[in-house]
Amino acid sequence: ELTVDTGARGTKVSPNLYGVFYEDINHAADGGLYAELVQNRSFEFNSTDERSYTGLTAWTKTERGATATLAVTGEAPLNPNNRNYLRLEVTGEGTAGVSNAGFNRGLPLKAGKRYDLSLWARRADGAPLTVTAEAGTAVLGKATLRVKAGRWARYTGSFVSSGTTDAGRLVVQAPGGRTDLDMVSLFPRDTFKGRENGMRADLATMIADLKPRFLRFPGGCVTNVGTYDPYSLNQDRRRIYQWKETIGPVEERPTNFNFWGYNQSYGIGYYEYFQFAEDIGAEALPVLSVGVNGCGENRPLTDEAKLARWVQDTLDLIEFANGPVTSEWGRKRAELGHPKPFGLDYIGLGNEEIYPEFFANYPKFADAIRARYPSIKIISNSGQTSQGAWFDRMWQFARDQRADLVDEHYYNNPDWFLANNRRYDSYGRSGPQVFVGEYASRGNTFYNALAEASYVTGLERNSDVVELASYAPLLANVDYVDWTPDLIWFDNDEAYGSPSYHVQKLFSTNVGDRVLPSTFEGEARPVDDIKGGVGLGSWNTAVRYDDVKVTAADGTVLLSDDFSAGSAAWTPGRGTWAVQDGAYVQTAQTEDARSTAGSADWSNYTIEATARKISGAEG
Ligand code: AHR
């Protein structure tokens, strides 16, 4: 029996409670939300960043009659921020060139849909370049670009695809002679809201469907790990995210080797983030570094002159978002296409810094913002709850600094979420508000979602002090997984929400005005009864399972509890599992339930699995 006290005043629900946290992790941007279909479009992939990279990553030579020599070089580049390009030397009759396989083993193309291509080229003589979209031996689209003799210039074309594929490639062919190529790009015309240089429609729609009130970006660890100098000072190693490097013409944005271990194009930059936030009806909530690293690395910025530039960049960002078109950065925003201010209300300073230098640097940023923009709400951070005494110290510092909000992060097992529903009941109401900027229960099963749903009732009940909350991370490309669990999973042409996605959507699209006190009387069902699912995946390497049984729809036992039948076929994602002392034990991090469940061979089976956890924190 559920009793609701309809006469009580209750708690007013924060109008901004439910938002999203977007980070370029798991290839969330390139090969994900950013609709660009060409990987390594500017030939900037570099083996000094990642050993497996070359300037030709994702590119293959194609010879059709003529022969080609390919070299990635930097002689007289397109501009100082785009240091490398492809030099294609073609000899003989016919044509030769390169093809790009995009992300996830191919380019997705849909019959009847229009695609826009563009590239920068330079040739001594004028010549036609043939660009085709192909799948197997079929040509699905074609455009001819007539390159003029002389300097670098941008050439554009478009085509309507005559077929559908998720394994296409883009082929650029040149006749005899030398052709320099850079920024080879292909976009579907149907980006989200039809924006040029825009977002992939299905993913953006799934995010928009959450009706998020805010968009926290660009990270996470990508905001504050790396070196501080800009690319223009020859910093070609991993740089901390610097917003000014990410606006303006895409060919003038440097790439970066981001914290998550891959090349990041900055095709989605600060202008696109603000535009996207507006397009989905959310407040933009940028997080900036205060010159202190986090995420396991620290080389604090102590040089006062350099720090002053970072403080100024932060003020400039607020002017970029909110300033009039007569201001320097407001004018820049207008030139990029948005004269109206974006209406920035919140700014995050730092992300999980666990170093005392944070206490020295933060006030320089906060004081400068307060002095110039007193109405902006400043969010300090507290790191992860698991950091214990440090977490408390960060909170005290935020109180002393009179921060408007404190950003809390936690990734725990589902049982923690069930046990901590009352976490915020006892939080003081007179200090900073809480921003639960990152949280998730470890796992991506129904049980996780259920535990989170329970937990969110506690956030909502306390939303007089919990002003904002966002699950993390938001996006994961199934072929480039850095972190699980995640809210939305995708490959190059499909996307699905995890059970947690549906919980977030359920709450976020059904927000009440007030939470009234209620009591429930009834028989509590042990949550263990409803645990289950195919996925044994979890982050916890100490979990041990027994009685594992996986059965295909036709009755074939794929894996049995004596670990004999089918055990060779059990290929659980990238995780490592082993039989130890008669139990099935996860010995290293694995992937989501889907990849844990099976290899490609299993895709035609309906799989039923049971497992009994015999020890460890979760199942
Ligand atoms: O959400 C994934 C990572 O978790 C974020 O980048 C970081 O802030 C946290 O440690």
Automatic annotation (TrEMBL):
<dbReference type="GO" id="GO:0046556">
    <property type="term" value="F:alpha-L-arabinofuranosidase activity"/>
</dbReference>
<keyword id="KW-0732">Signal</keyword>
<dbReference type="GO" id="GO:0046373">
    <property type="term" value="P:L-arabinose metabolic process"/>
</dbReference>
<comment type="similarity">
    <text>Belongs to the glycosyl hydrolase 51 family.</text>
</comment>
<protein>
    <recommendedName>
        <fullName>non-reducing end alpha-L-arabinofuranosidase</fullName>
        <ecNumber>3.2.1.55</ecNumber>
    </recommendedName>
</protein>
<keyword id="KW-0378">Hydrolase</keyword>
